[in-house]
Amino acid sequence: MKNDKLKMFIGGGIIGLLAVILVKLGNPGNMGICVACFWRDTAGALGLHRADVVQYIRPEILGFVLGAFLVSFFNKDFRSRGGSSPILRFVMGIFMMIGALAFLGCPLRMILRLSNGDLNALVGLLGFICGILLGIVFLKKGYTLGRSTKQPKFAGFIMPLIALTLLIFLIVKPSFIFFSQEGPASKHAPIIISLIAGIITGIILQRTRICTAGAFRDIFLIKDSHYLWGVLGIFVVALIGNLTFGGTFKLGFAEQPVAHSMHLWNFLGMSLVGLTGILLGGCPIRQTVLSGEGDTDAAVTVLGLIVGAAICHNFGLAASPKGVPVNGQIAVIIGLAFCIIAAFTISSQKGE
């Protein structure tokens, strides 16, 4: 048991260290790894939204998918499965992204922001836990999206093929792909380093199955801290890295990189992410990794994340360092209402 916890901590620690290195080599502050931000930037690069400061195919996110695919394929973990309420997963994926972009980051970035002194992330963490606790209530009442079933093997290769295609686009730079000249997406580590870091992260996450939502869910639901040790590894090593060679540690709420201090919406945005993470069976990075190992349900969720990013920037929902716009606030409330109603309805149907 102790060895398992140590392995989880070391796996998480490597991810935390890679995140610090990526920032040191050019990624935006506190954004060494952020699934929500990376899918948002990639959606912009494809022209799905025209916010010109967040358009760049992030090689790290492609590495997550490809790393998970490679290690699962060679370890015979790759299985094409799915068919579990795909339309609900797609819509919840959209709302998961809306919540993340209200907070300005996924749960993993929340941990990394906290490790660099951003106390706005502490507010987000409290909201994230509250969303998870709400999701657990529905799990105890019998909530489920149903079982996945075996799918045609080719279906499981779709997300890895998409990732490979996007990598080719990033390298070739065809005219129909957009690249930011300023703003967060113009800041990035060298492509090869980002890709390698992404692949390593994808491999670690596939083997350890670290999930931020799952870590807190298991603590509260079954009193199991196994996955939490991976999250602690990310935080502790990133904290040490930021304090030693990162050079960017700053404790406080004000003037944090790519963040805002509208506490209510940091809280509610991450509450939505926590709730959807439980209802979908995994946080954004867990869904991304699962999509690389043949899970088409997770792939549908990832497509929902991408569409959600496009919606956020096309309709003025996404937050900025100035705060969360009114449209974004309304969207978060709608997302919470939708997910609560859906979960309550599904839970009430148990036994029918």
TrEMBL record:
Keywords: Membrane, Transmembrane, Transmembrane helix. Pfam families: Sulf_transp. The chain crosses the membrane at residues 7-25, 56-75, 87-110, 122-142, 154-176, 188-205, 226-245, 265-285, 297-316, 328-346. The keyword Membrane applies. The keyword Transmembrane helix applies. InterPro entries: Seleno_YedE (IPR026366), Sulf_transp_TsuA/YedE (IPR007272). This is YedE family putative selenium transporter.
